[in-house]
């Protein structure tokens, strides 16, 4: 259950990052509210996952899901640049996440 909570927390991190971008510095109400709600839910699920997962593992997986997801959303929906270097960087993050998961206990 901890891994499911952690995965959902990571997905919510993507949601709040995207909504924060759309809020234009918290000047637009709806995206601002989505940002805050998704943040609270994401942190709450992260804290549940940390009850049984090691701090370093949980935090790295959470931030990694958010980083990779935000990168993908930025490219797919916001027209952000994609380059070989950015793809390699994302691939390295993914490799780190896989290795952390494989080495985790809990």
TrEMBL record:
Bilayer topology term: Multi-pass membrane protein
Listed InterPro entries: EmrE-like, Small_drug/metabolite_transptr, Small_multidrug_res
Highest taxon of source: Bacteria
Localization, UniProt: Cell membrane
Main location: membrane
Sequence intervals crossing the membrane: 33-50, 57-79, 85-104
Keywords: Cell membrane, Membrane, Transmembrane, Transmembrane helix, Transport
UniProt similarity note: Belongs to the drug/metabolite transporter (DMT) superfamily. Small multidrug resistance (SMR) (TC 2.A.7.1) family. Gdx/SugE subfamily.
PANTHER family, A to Z: GUANIDINIUM EXPORTER, SMR FAMILY PROTON-DEPENDENT DRUG EFFLUX TRANSPORTER SUGE
Protein's UniProt name: Guanidinium exporter
Source organism per UniProt: Sphingobium rhizovicinum
